[in-house]
Each structure stands twice: as structure tokens, then as C-alpha cells.
Design brief:
Oligomer: single chain
Order of helices and strands: HHEHEHEHEHEHHHEHHE
Low-confidence stretches: none
Strand order of the largest sheet: 3-2-1-4-5-7-6
Number of strands: 7
Shape: globular
Radius of gyration: 18 Å
């Protein structure tokens, strides 16, 4: 049977409770905003495509700055949450209930394309990445956030037991729970892929480089303020940044 891209209509509440409405979710948003601050504060109105928007928090933040947003998602329920967020803030965007593959041919090129936590859920990740790369204007930017395969390997090895054999045999992909992406990516491979296709890396940030390796018992005894101060100190340093649960690459199209 042909593999399909993941539709999250059945998991919206779980994503909200376990990802979006959590400290670690807020931390992800904070670092993304830091990386995007330099271009989002541009006085001119940027055209932005949020390709696979989820709840569209970053898009809403950009709209608040006066930029023009085109927003899409394969999940009708995710898109409804995004619309509700915009509406409650008195903001507008061009919303589309469609996949990136369906919508891209109908769209113009953009100053900024957001592709956040999508590639790892696609049946063909690099084909999806090619679609969004092609919609970035020369001189424009791609903001790419993806689930890190390094972190998946490392965290499973640290847990040990039965998890070691699948790692040794390279058969571990697609074996996790429903919130574990089937196609995580290696940062060095994605970075090289972007550079090979005419992009220059402007920012390279690891999201949760320490947090997700700490067990619950230890976390209960840990000062989260101190922990996130350390996250911020090390998240853009080589080695640490490539061990984050997620990796964010901001790349400019030459």
C-alpha cells in the first residue's frame, strides 16, 4: 500500500495537551521567534506561506507584525484551530484546507516560507522539501524545523533494553507511538541538501538540547528556569545544536 502523508485530525487534542500547551512547546516557539526576529522586523510587508501550519502560532505572530500570510494544512481540525487563533486576535490570513503538494502550483513565490515540523511526517520528505524550496523567492528565506534523527537514536540508546537491537539493525523508524514521527532527519544531511540547492544557512538552532534527555524523576527536582537558561546558552553551539529534539534552519535563497 502506498504510504501517505500524516493527517492529524485524530490527534489534535493530544498535540494541544502534550506539545502546544506545554512549557517545552512554548520554548520551541520562543527560539523560532528569536531566529526569525531579524527578518520579521523588516519594515516592508513580507509575503509568507505557512506550509503545514498546525495551530499557526508563528504565522499569527508574523501577522501581528503586519506581514501577509497564506496558511494551509492537510488537517481540517488543525486549520480550524489556526483560524480561531487569528480571529480571536482580529487578524486575517488566506487559509487553505489543502496539502502542500495540492496548493503549491496555485501559489506565487514568497519572501518567507515556514515549513515547521512537517517534513518528518511526509511519505516522501525530500520531495516535500523540494516543493517548498521552489516557492521561495531569490533573496527570500526558508524557515525549516524538523524532528532530529540524532536525538531519536540517542534518546533510545540511553533508555537501553529492547531498544538497542532496532537501532543496531536500523529498523527503528516508524516503530514509536502515534506522536513519534516516522521520518526524522539528520541535520547534516538537510543542511547539505539546502546548500546544494542554492540556499545559505543564516541560523542553526537546536530545540531542547538537554530537556528531552532528562527523566521525569530528575526533572521534578530541577529548576526549569536554570535549565532553559542553559538551553539558550548552548542551543546554537555546534554539537549541542545537532542533538536537540528538533532542529531549526533558517536559510536564504541566493
Amino acid at each position: 500500500m502506498k504510504k501517505q502523508d500524516r493527517n492529524f485530525d485524530d490527534l489534535v487534542e493530544r498535540f494541544e495537551n502534550r506539545v502546544y500547551d506545554t512549557g517545552k512547546g512554548n520554548w520551541r516557539l520562543r527560539l523560532l521567534m528569536q531566529d526569525l526576529d531579524g527578518i520579521s522586523d523588516n519594515k516592508s510587508c513580507l509575503s509568507v506561506w505557512d506550509a503545514g501550519c498546525g495551530f499557526a502560532q508563528i504565522s499569527q505572530w508574523l501577522a501581528e507584525k503586519g506581514h501577509s500570510l497564506t496558511v494551509c494544512d492537510l488537517s481540517e481540525k488543525m486549520l480550524a484551530r489556526a483560524k480561531a487563533g487569528f480571529s480571536s486576535s482580529g487578524l486575517s490570513a488566506d487559509f487553505h484546507h489543502a496539502s502542500i503538494q495540492q496548493l503549491a502550483p496555485l501559489l506565487p513565490d514568497f519572501d518567507l516560507v515556514l515549513f515547521h515540523a512537517v517534513i518528518e511526517w511526509l511519505a516522501d520528505p525530500l520531495a516535500g522539501l523540494a516543493i517548498v524550496m521552489n516557492k521561495v523567492k531569490p533573496g527570500g528565506y526558508l524557515s525549516l524545523l524538523f524532528y532530529n534523527r540524532n536525538a531519536m537514536v540517542y534518546s533510545n540508546v540511553l533508555k537501553g533494553q529492547w531498544r538497542l537491537k532496532p537501532i543496531l539493525e536500523d529498523t527503528y523508524l516508524g516503530k514509536g507511538n502515534r506522536l513519534t514521527p516516522p521520518n526524522p532527519q539528520y541535520p547534516h544531511e538537510i543542511e547539505q541538501h539546502l546548500m546544494d540547492h542554492g540556499f545559505e544557512i543564516q541560523a542553526h538552532t537546536g530545540i531542547r538540547v538537554f530537556h528531552d534527555y532528562i527523566n521525569n524523576e530528575t526533572m521534578d527536582m530541577t529548576d526549569t528556569g536554570e535549565l532553559f537558561a542553559l538551553e539558550e546558552r548552548y542551543c546554537r553551539m555546534p554539537v549541542y545544536r545537532d542533538m536537540g529534539r528538533y532542529v531549526h534552519l533558517l536559510a536564504r535563497k541566493l
